[in-house]
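Justification of resources, computational component.

The compute hours requested in this renewal are based largely on the per-chain cost of generating structure records like the one below. Each record pairs the submitted sequence with a full structure-token output. That output is archived, and it is also reused by downstream analysis tasks.
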Amino acid sequence: MKRVLLTLSLALMMLTACEANDPTVDSPVVLNSFPEINEPHSPEQAEQSGDVVVLLEGMRNKDKWKTFVKNVKNKQQDQVRVTMYTIEGGPIIYELIYDGSAIQSTYDDSRDLYGSKQGITTNTCEGIGTMKSEQGRVFYVLTGCEKEGSTFSMPK
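The structure output for this chain reads:
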């Protein structure tokens, strides 16, 4: 009986080891956590920590945003943190994590003096699209979101 159990255990371990090393099996990519936010979260600090920074006068780290949009289009896992600054200079932070099929969006306006103070809110969306404003400006928006009224929009 011991010999049978030992043989079965050995066979099971070998099968498991072969499966774990099989390069044809899609294994999920573990995404890194976002860098810690240092206070006050200035545009310079946000840029240095790798955030896409959106200011009234333009965007910094725009290449990271373009890569994220491309990866979502190609169904490749990726993540990006976008920090947008209000007219008064308050940061509004979005963390977007794409797992290959959906985008987990986190919205945090707790550092904005005039923010809603609702705390951090999350939403799950299907993808990224574009929308044209009445003034003719084009924005990126999250599409197919579970919760209506997704607040994410970013100038194209």
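The chain is about 25% helix and 30% strand. The radius of gyration is 21 Å.
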